[in-house]
Structures are given as C-alpha cells and as structure tokens.
Specification:
Largest sheet: 6 strands, mixed
Strand content: 35-45%
Oligomer: single chain
Distance between the termini: 51 Å
Radius of gyration: 24 Å
Helix content: 10-25%
C-alpha cells in the first residue's frame, strides 16, 4: 500500500467556491480513464491499475494492482468444496529504455468455496505488487492464467515517474477508490463505477523537491451531458448529428458538482486526497489544475469515470432485470412495468411475463438464463458512456447473439446473420459518428436503422417469447 509522506485531506461540500476552468478537448488527452476491459467468453476476467510515485523510504516506486473476477474462473471439485487456481505474471518495460525489462516472479493464488454460487460471483481476487524503479515512463503488462482451464488473458497499462528538477514539480496520475458502507477503500481500476458504491476517493502526488514557492491547487468534480438512456428502436429514424445520442457525451455542456482551492507552501513531494459522495448515473471527470507562484503555465490532470447500474456489469436486482425487457415488450407493456415501484409486484409481473409467453417452467428458466447472460455479456463487451446492453451493438447482440460474420471497414462495422451476405434483413451496419473531438475516448457505433427491420424484429421477439430461441437463433 502507499506510504504517504504527508496527506492533505479535503472533505468537499456543495458550498465550495467555483473556479473557472476552460473545457477544451486538449484536456481529454491527459485524463485517465482506468485500464481497458477486455472480455473473452471462457477466459479469466482481469482489470489492472498501475501507480507511479515517490515513496518516502524506497524512492521511485510502481504500485500495481490486479483484480480477477472469481466467477470467471473454472472450478474443480476438491472433497466438499470447489477450487480454482490462478497464476499472475507481471512484466514492466521501461519505455525510455527498451532493454530494461523487469519481470516479477509468478504469483499464484487459490480460491476455495463450499458455495456453488462462487462460479457466478462478482467478487474479486486482488493482487498487489510493488517494484522499486528509476524515474521513467513505464508499460505494465499483467497476464492471468487459469491453471484449471489453461486459458489466459493479458491487460496492459502505462504510468510514469518523472525526474523533477529543483524548484519544478509534476503531478502523478490520479488514483481512484470506492467503498460501500463500512468496507475498506478498494481501487477502481476501470472507467465504470457501480452506483452501489457510497463514496469516492481520489489521490495523487505532487512530485517536487523541497521548495518554498507556494502552489495553488484548484480541483473540481464536473458532470457532462451524456446519453444514458435506452436506444431507439431499430425500425425508427436515425439520430440527428445534433442529438446527444449521436454525440454520446457533450464535453461543452458541463455542470460543476463541487470545487475547491488549496494553497500549499514549504513542501516537498506530497499526496493530496479528495473525497466525494458517489453521484447519480452519468459521466464525470475529477479535475486538478496546479500552478506554482511565479510560473506562467499550469499543469492539468484528470480522472474520468461513469456511474452505471448497482451491480454492473451483472444484472441482479429487480430493476436491473426489468429494464432490458424493453426489447421484448411493446411500449404500453414496458411503460406499465416501469411504473411499478413495489418489489414484490415487480417480481410477479416479470415472472408472469416470461411464464405466460413460454408456458413450460423448465424452458422458461433456460430462456431467462440465456437472455440475461447476453445482457451481462453486452455490458462487458460494448459498454462506453452507458451500459453495454443499452448501446446499439448491445441491442442487436442481446436479440440476435453473435453474428455469423463481421466486416470492419474504416468507421463502419457490419454484422451478418445469414450466409447470404446480400440479404438486407439479416445485415446490420453500424457507423461511428463524425465527432469534432479527436480525443473522444469511447468505442461508439450507431446502428443504421431501416424500416424493413420491422418484420425481422417481430420474428426474433417471437422466438424469445415462445422459447424457440433455444432451438434456433434466428
């Protein structure tokens, strides 16, 4: 864990002063989003984080965190319990000196449980690793191997530790943590934050030799206008370029949630920490702008994040189970479903919807499992500024599954659900919007909607509601 030299702890309130920050696209390229999330069916699920800082005793240090989802592992029966074994391999590459490669010893972990629910658990195995290094830019690759299935997955991220001259300073990357109730702070390694998290914590280091020149730290938490809603039906008109659905996030439309100013004097390298209550579903950025007295230029750093559903990427509570039914219900049914606030009533309506249509309880259970498996997989594969099942690609994936064939050309992606590539009803074309912001950080594709998808959508919905989806995909 980080050994703080000195920590300035700031509890921010809504009454904080508001300071002016420019909101140009140039800020986005120095804003971290956490590590990418690569999902492969049947492979271990892994997220990583790396933080470079100056330790009071050890000097320049890399702190690496790897999180492996327990439910993504393959378990074997060991007496009265289930057991999974993983190996973690960490490789550190000095990007300024390609010959300097640091490899850790293999770290192995065993997970055992007598509860069969472990095979679907979203709990994590957390591995922390520290390495003393020299100031430089680093690339960190972490590979997790499931020793039962022999399948592996690798994630890569970058961080830096600057070599700072006397009288100068640099800001480290911003680390983000979350906690629920009375639990300990846990690192948030990616972009997505579950709305069940109660509190957020941001920490960074001002890296500087001893100096007497005061430094001003302006920080703020901002929310951006963004699309968090349901996708438009595949048979309706396409989105206009001025709509928020087309843009995804409008970085020119922001709301300052909280802000503060702090002045440091007579300090060396210090950690600075901020805490906030978690926010409503949406897209945010925690920003820090620092400037030392007498300097003409300031330094900016940011940490972007999006608040998603409570159990993201899983769907577990009743509201999470109800909302994706929009693809199978007509508009009146769905509006009526969304008006139900009582949990017992909501459960009865959801159960009645599935069983009334399919009839057989065993078949109904299998169809429900398939449907929500696709919803969860869409969350893992297609999430951006909103949950993956709400995106256009997520909508098609939930309804139709994996395409038979795909074609990726420049800014266009085509999914084919027939071996006849000329059949328009079985062909879905997605296009990336032409956005002016070159730093737009999301994989954003919009379906090119067509009126002739009406019959295809109707037939596909009938396959689900009759249970025939278990025998034929389309």
């Amino acid at each position: 864990m980080i050994k703080p030299l000195r920590i300035f702890l700031l509890f921010l309130t809504f009454a904080g002063s508001i300071f002016l920050f420019s909101c140009s696209s140039s800020k986005i390229d120095v804003t971290q989003q956490g590590s990418d999330y690569t999902y492969k069916v049947g492979h271990p699920e892994l997220r990583i984080n790396a933080f470079g800082f100056i330790d009071q005793e050890q000097g320049p240090t890399l702190e690496i965190t790897a999180e492996v989802i327990k439910g993504s592992l393959v378990y074997s029966q060991q007496n009265d319990s289930l057991s999974a074994n993983i190996a973690i391999d960490i490789q550190i590459v000095d990007l300024d000196n390609g010959e300097n490669i640091i490899e850790s010893e293999r770290i192995t972990k065993t997970v055992s449980s007598s509860n069969e629910q472990i095979t679907s658990s979203r709990e994590t195995i957390t591995i922390n690793y520290s390495q003393q290094v020299s100031p430089s830019n680093y690339q960190i690759s972490v590979t997790v191997t499931d020793l039962n299935s022999k399948r592996k997955l690798t994630q890569t991220t970058e961080t830096f530790i600057p070599e700072t001259d006397e009288g100068e300073f640099t800001i480290s990357t911003i680390q983000m943590y979350g906690k629920e109730d009375d639990t300990d702070w846990a690192p948030i390694t990616g972009y997505d934050v579950q709305s069940s998290v109660d509190s957020l914590r941001f920490i960074f280091q001002v890296i500087s030799p001893q100096t007497e020149r005061p430094m001003t730290i302006d920080s703020r938490l901002v929310e951006f206008r963004s699309d968090t809603g349901l996708p438009r039906s595949m048979t309706r008109n396409n989105y206009s370029p001025s709509s928020i659905e087309y843009k995804g996030i409008d970085y020119d439309r922001e709301t300052v949630i909280q802000s503060t100013r702090r002045v440091l004097s007579d300090y060396s390298s210090v950690f600075v920490e901020y805490k906030f209550a978690n926010q409503n579903r949406g897209n945010y950025r925690f920003e820090v702008t620092t400037k030392k007295e007498g300097d003409e230029e300031d330094q900016f750093n940011g940490r972007a994040f999006g608040v998603k559903s409570p159990n993201f990427p899983a769907v577990q509570n009743l509201n999470e189970l109800a909302r994706p039914l929009v693809y199978l219900m007509d508009s009146k049914q769905y509006e009526s479903l969304m008006e139900i606030s009582d949990k017992d009533s909501l459960k009865r309506v959801i159960d009645r919807f599935w069983l009334k249509n399919i009839g057989n309880k065993q078949k109904t259970r299998r169809v429900i499992e398939l449907y929500y498996t696709r919803v969860e997989q869409a969350n893992k594969m297609y999430s951006n500024f909103k949950e993956g099942w709400k995106t256009d690609r997520g909508m098609i994936y939930v309804m139709f599954g994996n395409p038979f064939y795909t074609r990726d050309r420049l800014r266009a992606l085509t999914w084919y659900y027939s071996y006849n590539l000329e059949d328009p009803e079985y062909r879905f074309r997605f296009v990336q919007p032409q956005l002016n912001n070159k730093f737009f950080p999301f994989d954003h594709y919009l379906l090119q909607r067509q009126s002739y998808y009406h019959s295809r959508r109707y037939i596909q919905r009938d396959l689900w509601l009759s249970g025939s989806i278990l025998q034929r995909r389309i």
